[in-house]
Protein backbone atom coordinates (compact mmCIF):
# COMPACT_ATOMS: atom_id res chain seq x y z
CA UNK A 1 0.00 0.00 0.00
CA UNK A 2 1.43 3.39 -0.95
CA UNK A 3 2.25 5.95 1.71
CA UNK A 4 0.01 8.46 -0.07
CA UNK A 5 -2.93 6.03 -0.01
CA UNK A 6 -2.44 5.31 3.69
CA UNK A 7 -2.21 9.02 4.50
CA UNK A 8 -5.54 9.61 2.75
CA UNK A 9 -7.11 6.71 4.67
CA UNK A 10 -5.87 8.11 7.98
CA UNK A 11 -7.33 11.50 7.05
CA UNK A 12 -10.71 9.87 6.36
CA UNK A 13 -10.52 8.13 9.73
CA UNK A 14 -9.81 11.41 11.46
CA UNK A 15 -12.93 12.90 9.90
CA UNK A 16 -15.00 9.94 11.11
CA UNK A 17 -13.70 10.40 14.63
CA UNK A 18 -14.45 14.12 14.47
CA UNK A 19 -18.08 13.41 13.58
CA UNK A 20 -18.39 10.90 16.41
CA UNK A 21 -16.96 13.33 18.96
CA UNK A 22 -19.22 16.12 17.73
CA UNK A 23 -22.17 13.80 18.34
CA UNK A 24 -21.02 13.24 21.93
CA UNK A 25 -20.58 9.50 21.44
CA UNK A 26 -17.85 7.20 22.66
CA UNK A 27 -16.48 4.56 20.37
CA UNK A 28 -18.33 1.88 22.34
CA UNK A 29 -21.63 3.75 22.11
CA UNK A 30 -21.29 4.21 18.36
CA UNK A 31 -20.43 0.55 17.89
CA UNK A 32 -23.57 -0.41 19.78
CA UNK A 33 -25.71 1.85 17.61
CA UNK A 34 -24.26 0.29 14.48
CA UNK A 35 -24.21 -3.27 15.85
CA UNK A 36 -20.50 -3.43 15.07
CA UNK A 37 -17.55 -4.69 17.02
CA UNK A 38 -15.83 -1.88 18.92
CA UNK A 39 -12.60 -2.84 17.13
CA UNK A 40 -14.11 -1.95 13.76
CA UNK A 41 -14.85 1.60 14.89
CA UNK A 42 -11.28 1.87 16.12
CA UNK A 43 -9.76 0.49 12.90
CA UNK A 44 -11.76 2.89 10.76
CA UNK A 45 -10.86 5.90 12.88
CA UNK A 46 -7.17 5.09 12.90
CA UNK A 47 -6.96 4.34 9.17
CA UNK A 48 -6.17 0.66 9.66
CA UNK A 49 -9.21 -0.44 7.67
CA UNK A 50 -10.81 0.98 4.53
CA UNK A 51 -14.47 1.90 4.99
CA UNK A 52 -17.05 0.74 2.48
CA UNK A 53 -19.68 3.10 1.08
CA UNK A 54 -22.28 1.38 3.27
CA UNK A 55 -20.07 1.84 6.35
CA UNK A 56 -19.83 5.56 5.74
CA UNK A 57 -23.55 6.08 5.18
CA UNK A 58 -24.32 4.10 8.33
CA UNK A 59 -21.76 6.11 10.31
CA UNK A 60 -23.20 9.43 9.14
CA UNK A 61 -26.71 8.34 10.10
CA UNK A 62 -25.61 6.98 13.49
CA UNK A 63 -23.93 10.26 14.50
CA UNK A 64 -26.98 12.24 13.43
CA UNK A 65 -25.31 13.80 10.40
CA UNK A 66 -26.73 12.01 7.33
CA UNK A 67 -25.95 15.07 5.22
CA UNK A 68 -22.24 14.25 5.70
CA UNK A 69 -22.65 10.95 3.86
CA UNK A 70 -21.86 12.32 0.38
CA UNK A 71 -18.75 14.09 1.66
CA UNK A 72 -17.50 10.93 3.34
CA UNK A 73 -18.15 8.93 0.19
CA UNK A 74 -16.26 11.50 -1.86
CA UNK A 75 -13.29 11.08 0.47
CA UNK A 76 -13.53 7.31 0.15
CA UNK A 77 -13.59 7.55 -3.62
CA UNK A 78 -10.46 9.62 -3.39
CA UNK A 79 -8.73 6.59 -1.87
CA UNK A 80 -9.37 4.73 -5.12
CA UNK A 81 -7.11 7.24 -6.85
CA UNK A 82 -3.89 5.84 -5.42
CA UNK A 83 -1.14 8.43 -5.76
CA UNK A 84 2.47 7.41 -6.02
CA UNK A 85 4.92 10.28 -5.95
CA UNK A 86 7.59 10.06 -8.66
CA UNK A 87 10.12 11.63 -6.30
CA UNK A 88 9.56 8.80 -3.84
CA UNK A 89 9.46 6.10 -6.52
CA UNK A 90 12.65 7.33 -8.20
CA UNK A 91 14.64 7.71 -4.99
CA UNK A 92 16.60 4.58 -5.95
CA UNK A 93 16.67 5.34 -9.68
CA UNK A 94 14.52 4.41 -12.67
CA UNK A 95 15.26 0.69 -12.81
CA UNK A 96 13.02 -0.33 -9.85
CA UNK A 97 10.08 1.46 -11.51
CA UNK A 98 10.79 -0.19 -14.86
CA UNK A 99 11.07 -3.61 -13.19
CA UNK A 100 7.64 -3.08 -11.59
CA UNK A 101 6.16 -2.26 -14.98
CA UNK A 102 7.64 -5.44 -16.45
CA UNK A 103 5.65 -7.46 -13.90
CA UNK A 104 2.46 -5.42 -14.40
CA UNK A 105 2.57 -5.83 -18.18
CA UNK A 106 3.29 -9.55 -17.92
CA UNK A 107 0.12 -10.12 -15.89
CA UNK A 108 -2.03 -7.98 -18.19
CA UNK A 109 -3.89 -9.66 -21.06
CA UNK A 110 -5.48 -6.65 -22.75
CA UNK A 111 -4.56 -3.00 -22.59
CA UNK A 112 -5.89 0.20 -24.05
CA UNK A 113 -3.52 3.15 -23.98
CA UNK A 114 -3.23 6.70 -25.24
CA UNK A 115 -0.25 9.04 -25.35
CA UNK A 116 -0.35 12.66 -26.49
CA UNK A 117 3.27 13.82 -26.12
CA UNK A 118 5.62 10.85 -26.33
CA UNK A 119 6.07 7.47 -27.99
CA UNK A 120 4.90 4.91 -25.39
CA UNK A 121 7.57 2.98 -23.52
CA UNK A 122 6.11 -0.24 -24.88
CA UNK A 123 7.16 0.85 -28.39
CA UNK A 124 10.38 2.75 -27.71
CA UNK A 125 13.76 1.95 -29.21
CA UNK A 126 16.66 1.71 -26.73
CA UNK A 127 18.16 4.95 -28.05
CA UNK A 128 14.89 6.91 -27.75
CA UNK A 129 14.28 5.48 -24.26
CA UNK A 130 17.80 6.42 -23.20
CA UNK A 131 17.26 10.09 -23.98
CA UNK A 132 13.89 10.16 -22.22
CA UNK A 133 15.15 8.46 -19.08
CA UNK A 134 18.27 10.61 -18.86
CA UNK A 135 16.20 13.77 -19.24
CA UNK A 136 13.76 12.64 -16.58
CA UNK A 137 16.55 11.73 -14.17
CA UNK A 138 17.95 15.24 -14.59
CA UNK A 139 14.53 16.81 -14.07
CA UNK A 140 13.68 14.75 -10.98
CA UNK A 141 17.26 14.87 -9.68
CA UNK A 142 17.15 11.11 -9.19
CA UNK A 143 20.06 8.63 -9.38
CA UNK A 144 21.41 8.04 -12.88
CA UNK A 145 20.92 4.35 -13.69
CA UNK A 146 20.04 4.88 -17.34
CA UNK A 147 21.64 1.72 -18.74
CA UNK A 148 19.84 -0.54 -16.26
CA UNK A 149 16.55 1.33 -16.74
CA UNK A 150 16.73 1.05 -20.54
CA UNK A 151 17.39 -2.69 -20.28
CA UNK A 152 14.38 -3.11 -18.00
CA UNK A 153 12.17 -1.08 -20.35
CA UNK A 154 13.21 -3.29 -23.24
CA UNK A 155 12.30 -6.39 -21.19
CA UNK A 156 8.82 -4.94 -20.81
CA UNK A 157 8.44 -5.11 -24.60
CA UNK A 158 8.74 -8.91 -24.57
CA UNK A 159 4.98 -9.00 -23.89
CA UNK A 160 4.40 -7.81 -27.46
CA UNK A 161 5.38 -11.28 -28.67
CA UNK A 162 3.23 -13.29 -26.27
CA UNK A 163 0.29 -15.12 -27.81
CA UNK A 164 -3.08 -14.09 -26.43
CA UNK A 165 -2.17 -10.54 -25.45
CA UNK A 166 -3.57 -7.43 -27.14
CA UNK A 167 -2.30 -3.87 -26.87
CA UNK A 168 -4.61 -1.28 -28.40
CA UNK A 169 -2.61 1.95 -28.41
CA UNK A 170 -3.43 5.43 -29.65
CA UNK A 171 -0.81 8.14 -30.21
CA UNK A 172 -1.48 11.81 -30.95
CA UNK A 173 0.34 12.67 -34.18
CA UNK A 174 2.18 15.53 -32.50
CA UNK A 175 4.28 12.98 -30.58
CA UNK A 176 5.79 11.86 -33.90
CA UNK A 177 7.20 15.34 -34.44
CA UNK A 178 8.46 16.07 -30.91
CA UNK A 179 12.26 16.04 -31.05
CA UNK A 180 13.36 15.10 -27.56
CA UNK A 181 16.32 13.25 -29.09
CA UNK A 182 18.70 13.63 -32.08
CA UNK A 183 17.07 13.39 -35.51
CA UNK A 184 18.67 10.08 -36.40
CA UNK A 185 17.34 8.57 -33.16
CA UNK A 186 13.86 9.90 -33.92
CA UNK A 187 14.04 8.45 -37.44
CA UNK A 188 14.86 5.06 -35.99
CA UNK A 189 12.00 5.39 -33.53
CA UNK A 190 9.55 6.13 -36.33
CA UNK A 191 10.81 3.10 -38.25
CA UNK A 192 10.09 1.04 -35.15
CA UNK A 193 6.46 2.22 -35.19
CA UNK A 194 6.09 1.15 -38.82
CA UNK A 195 7.26 -2.32 -37.87
CA UNK A 196 4.52 -2.61 -35.26
CA UNK A 197 1.70 -2.08 -37.75
CA UNK A 198 0.17 -5.42 -38.55
CA UNK A 199 1.45 -7.31 -35.50
CA UNK A 200 -1.19 -9.68 -34.13
CA UNK A 201 -0.79 -8.37 -30.59
CA UNK A 202 -0.76 -4.66 -31.48
CA UNK A 203 -3.52 -2.40 -32.69
CA UNK A 204 -1.81 0.95 -33.34
CA UNK A 205 -3.85 4.05 -34.11
CA UNK A 206 -2.60 7.58 -34.76
CA UNK A 207 -4.85 10.55 -34.02
CA UNK A 208 -4.05 12.98 -36.87
CA UNK A 209 -3.43 16.67 -36.45
CA UNK A 210 -6.36 18.53 -37.95
CA UNK A 211 -8.78 15.62 -37.68
CA UNK A 212 -12.33 16.45 -36.49
CA UNK A 213 -12.31 15.59 -32.79
CA UNK A 214 -15.21 14.55 -30.55
CA UNK A 215 -13.24 15.90 -27.57
CA UNK A 216 -9.92 17.57 -26.86
CA UNK A 217 -6.77 15.40 -27.07
CA UNK A 218 -6.52 15.00 -23.26
CA UNK A 219 -3.58 13.57 -21.30
CA UNK A 220 -2.11 10.11 -21.64
CA UNK A 221 -3.56 7.13 -19.78
CA UNK A 222 -3.49 3.32 -19.75
CA UNK A 223 -6.36 0.91 -19.02
CA UNK A 224 -5.23 -2.49 -17.70
CA UNK A 225 -7.63 -5.39 -18.36
CA UNK A 226 -10.59 -2.98 -18.07
CA UNK A 227 -10.01 -3.03 -14.30
CA UNK A 228 -7.77 -0.08 -13.50
CA UNK A 229 -6.37 3.04 -15.09
CA UNK A 230 -2.90 4.51 -14.66
CA UNK A 231 -2.25 8.18 -15.40
CA UNK A 232 1.20 9.77 -15.19
CA UNK A 233 1.64 13.44 -14.38
CA UNK A 234 4.93 15.31 -13.99
CA UNK A 235 5.22 14.53 -10.27
CA UNK A 236 2.72 11.74 -9.59
CA UNK A 237 1.47 8.39 -10.86
CA UNK A 238 -2.27 8.01 -10.33
CA UNK A 239 -4.18 4.74 -10.25
CA UNK A 240 -7.98 4.55 -10.51
CA UNK A 241 -9.80 1.36 -9.60
CA UNK A 242 -13.47 2.30 -9.44
CA UNK A 243 -15.79 0.99 -12.14
CA UNK A 244 -17.05 4.52 -12.87
CA UNK A 245 -13.53 5.86 -13.46
CA UNK A 246 -12.52 2.92 -15.64
CA UNK A 247 -15.70 3.39 -17.69
CA UNK A 248 -15.04 7.13 -18.06
CA UNK A 249 -11.53 6.61 -19.39
CA UNK A 250 -12.88 3.86 -21.62
CA UNK A 251 -15.34 6.30 -23.18
CA UNK A 252 -12.56 8.82 -23.76
CA UNK A 253 -10.44 6.15 -25.43
CA UNK A 254 -13.36 5.07 -27.63
CA UNK A 255 -13.94 8.61 -28.85
CA UNK A 256 -10.26 9.20 -29.58
CA UNK A 257 -10.17 5.88 -31.43
CA UNK A 258 -12.96 7.07 -33.71
CA UNK A 259 -10.71 9.88 -34.92
CA UNK A 260 -7.61 7.69 -35.28
CA UNK A 261 -5.94 6.42 -38.44
CA UNK A 262 -4.97 2.77 -38.74
CA UNK A 263 -3.06 0.56 -41.16
CA UNK A 264 -1.94 2.28 -44.39
CA UNK A 265 -3.25 5.68 -43.20
CA UNK A 266 -1.20 5.42 -40.03
CA UNK A 267 1.79 4.34 -42.10
CA UNK A 268 1.47 7.50 -44.21
CA UNK A 269 1.41 9.72 -41.11
CA UNK A 270 4.59 8.10 -39.83
CA UNK A 271 6.23 8.45 -43.25
CA UNK A 272 5.34 12.15 -43.31
CA UNK A 273 6.90 12.68 -39.90
CA UNK A 274 10.02 10.78 -40.92
CA UNK A 275 10.38 12.84 -44.11
CA UNK A 276 10.33 16.02 -42.04
CA UNK A 277 12.98 14.62 -39.71
CA UNK A 278 15.22 13.74 -42.66
CA UNK A 279 14.61 17.04 -44.48
CA UNK A 280 15.97 19.20 -41.65
Explain this structure to me?
Helix 1 runs antiparallel to helix 5 (69-79), helix 2 (27-34) crosses helix 3 and helix 7 (95-106) runs parallel beside helix 9. The protein folds into 2 domains: 3-79, Orthogonal Bundle (434 Repressor (Amino-terminal Domain)), CATH 1.10.260; 83-279, 2-Layer Sandwich (Endonuclease, Chain A). The radius of gyration is 23 Å and the shape is elongated. It is 52% helix and 14% strand. It is an alpha/beta fold and 280 residues long. It contains 12 helices and 7 strands. The N and C termini lie far apart (49 Å). Strands 1-7-6-5-2-3-4 form a 7-stranded mixed beta sheet. Strand 3, helix 10 (183-196) and strand 4 (202-207) form a beta-alpha-beta unit. It has helices spanning 3-22, 27-34, 38-45, 53-62, 69-79, 86-89, 95-106, 126-140, 146-156, 183-196, 243-259, 263-279; strands at 81-85, 110-115, 166-172, 202-207, 221-224, 228-232, 236-240.
Question: What are the key terms here?
Answer:
12 helices; elongated; 280 residues; 14% strand; 434 Repressor (Amino-terminal Domain); alpha/beta; 2 domains
The CATH level-2 architecture of the largest domain is identified as 2-Layer Sandwich
The count of β-strands is: 7
CATH fold title of the largest domain = Endonuclease, Chain A
Radius of gyration: 23 Å
Task: Profile the largest sheet.
Answer: 7 strands, mixed
- Name the beta content range: 5-15%
User: Major sheet: order of its strands?
Assistant: 1-7-6-5-2-3-4
As for the number of domains, it is: 2
Large-scale geometry: elongated
Low-confidence runs: none
> Given the helix and strand composition, which structural class is it?
alpha/beta
- CATH C-level class of the largest domain is Alpha Beta
Helix proportion range = 40-55%
Q: What is the H/E order?
A: HHHHHEHHEHHEHEEEEHH
Amino acid sequence: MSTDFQSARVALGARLRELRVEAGLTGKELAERLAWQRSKVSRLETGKQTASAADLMAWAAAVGAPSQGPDLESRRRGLESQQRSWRRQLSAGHRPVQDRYVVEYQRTATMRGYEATVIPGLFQTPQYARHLLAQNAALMRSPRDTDEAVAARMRRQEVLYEVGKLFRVLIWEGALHTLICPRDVMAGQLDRLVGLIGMSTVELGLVPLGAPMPLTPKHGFWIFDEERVIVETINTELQYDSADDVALYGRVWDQLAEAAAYGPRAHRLIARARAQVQAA
